[in-house]
């Protein structure tokens, strides 16, 4: 049976449970406007999640803080293989560098 992406409302408490309870392999949060706070909770889950392989965060207004959280989580997470965060234009050069460094150290993301 093929896995279908799960789309949810941008509720931080809902995002927080993904690392502990659910065994999702794909999470599609495209255009959910989760913002920096939502990304922070998501990244807390990514640090301990061992099943999520695809994360779609495009067009979410994650901002500079969200990019920092994402970069920190990517240094730890070793199961995520596909990540899309395009269209988050409010990410500055410093955050882009932080994400670039994290992705260079992460050997599994394509």
How would you describe this structure to a colleague?
- The chain has helices at residues 12-16, 35-46, 63-74, 93-105, and strands at 26-28, 54-56, 82-84.
- The protein is mainly α.
- The protein has one domain: Ribonuclease Inhibitor (Leucine-rich repeat, LRR (right-handed beta-alpha superhelix), Alpha-Beta Horseshoe).
- Strands 1-2-3 form a three-stranded parallel beta sheet, with no helix packed on it.
- Helix 2 (35-46) links the parallel strand 1 and strand 2 (54-56).
- The model has no long low-confidence stretch (mean pLDDT 82).
Low-confidence stretches: none
Write down the CATH topology: Leucine-rich repeat, LRR (right-handed beta-alpha superhelix)
Q: How many structural domains?
A: 1
Tell me, what is the CATH class?
Alpha Beta
User: How does CATH name the architecture?
Assistant: Alpha-Beta Horseshoe
Protein name: RNI-like protein
InterPro entries: Leu-rich_rpt, LRR_dom_sf, PP1-Reg/Actin-Interact_Protein
Pfam family, one: LRR_6
Please give a quick description of this structure.
This protein has one domain (12-105): Ribonuclease Inhibitor (Leucine-rich repeat, LRR (right-handed beta-alpha superhelix)).
Fill in the keyword field for this structure.
3 strands; 3-stranded parallel beta sheet; Leucine-rich repeat, LRR (right-handed beta-alpha superhelix); 38% helix; 8% strand; 110 residues; mainly alpha
List the helices and strands and how they pair.
Blueprint: H1 12-16, E1 26-28, H2 35-46, E2 54-56, H3 63-74, E3 82-84, H4 93-105
Helix pairs in contact: 2-3, 3-4
């Amino acid at each position: 049976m093929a896995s279908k992406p799960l789309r949810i409302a941008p509720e931080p408490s809902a995002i927080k449970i993904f690392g502990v309870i659910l065994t999702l392999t794909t999470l599609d949060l495209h255009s959910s406007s989760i913002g920096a706070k939502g990304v922070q909770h998501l990244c807390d889950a990514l640090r301990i999640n061992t099943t999520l392989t695809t994360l779609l965060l495009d067009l979410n207004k994650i901002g500079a803080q969200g990019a920092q959280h994402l970069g920190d989580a990517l240094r730890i997470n070793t199961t995520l293989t596909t990540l899309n965060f395009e269209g988050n234009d409010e990410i500055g050069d410093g955050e882009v560098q932080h994400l670039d460094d994290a992705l260079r150290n992460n050997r599994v993301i394509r």
